[in-house]
Specification:
Number of domains: 1
CATH class: Mainly Alpha
Order of helices and strands: HHHHHHHEEHHHH
Number of helices: 11
Shape: globular
Radius of gyration: 20 Å
Helix content: over 70%
Number of strands: 2
Largest sheet: 2 strands, antiparallel
């Protein structure tokens, strides 16, 4: 009897969570929009190239989350599919710019290994390489409607637990995550160095948070955890650049 009550309670809790996904994505989008506005204000004050490069990928994160929140109101079809393509293109074309930000922060922090032009050139090469590779991989995939809780969105892969139609479960494929994984570990590595040499632990903390959130299977808590981690790590990056700019 107790086991049955526990199962029913767990099912009810998940049902309540699923009915709140639209609200959760709307709130995440609002946080990203607030971060974008703040980042633009910081750039206008400092004219920092590093901040500008942070702004570019951040500028579409609010759109990403708002579109997921609005998906069920727009409805399945070409319009939502076309709007979703903007989400993916912005991700694959703009996120790699963060590799250049890593190099710029390392230079600004005074690390000798980051000063040669060839090192900065390698960060730029990594940026362009992942832009081209991930965008090319995305163009070879189709988009499929995906349902989770009260949300409707388009994705390149239909996870079985998110299939709008059971016959679509498992369709599609993934764009390789190598670029995102390498970028997060670059944040962690740079964060460790900044903590040791500058007493600044916040880039490390932000990167670890998104690593943990992104590593939790979507079947456990839904895919929004990695979306929550994005404004956290981006805020940590922005604060890191501002900290180094203030120290001159």
């Amino acid at each position: 009897m107790l086991r049955s009550e526990q199962v029913n309670f767990s099912a009810a809790r998940h049902e309540r969570l699923y009915s709140m996904y639209t609200l959760i994505y709307f709130l995440i989008g609002s946080v990203n929009l607030a971060l974008l506005i703040y980042a633009i204000q910081c750039w206008r004050r400092t004219r920092s190239v590093a901040i500008l490069l942070i702004i570019l990928p951040v500028s579409f994160l609010w759109y990403d989350n708002y579109l997921i929140a609005a998906g069920r109101f727009i409805g399945e079809g070409k319009l939502l599919e076309s709007l979703s393509s903007i989400r993916f293109f912005s991700h694959y074309l703009l996120l790699p710019l963060m590799f250049i930000v890593v190099g710029m922060i390392a230079r600004r922090a005074g690390y000798r290994w980051a000063q040669p032009r060839i090192v900065m050139g390698l960060f730029c090469i990594a940026c362009v390489a992942f832009m081209v590779w991930e965008t090319a991989e995305y163009l070879m995939l189709d988009l499929y409607p995906v349902c989770l809780g009260d949300t409707l969105r388009y994705s390149t892969w239909v996870a079985p637990e998110q299939a709008c139609d059971p016959s679509m479960a498992g369709l599609g494929g993934y764009v390789p995550l190598a670029g995102s994984v390498l970028l997060v570990f670059s944040f962690i590595g740079l964060g460790v160095m900044l903590w040791r040499t500058h007493g600044w632990p916040w880039l490390f903390a932000g990167a670890v948070i998104i690593l943990i959130f992104a590593g939790i299977p979507s079947s456990v808590a839904g895919p929004f955890l990695s979306n929550i981690g994005e404004p956290i790590v981006n805020f940590a990056l922005l604060m890191t650049v501002l900290r180094l700019e203030q120290r001159g």
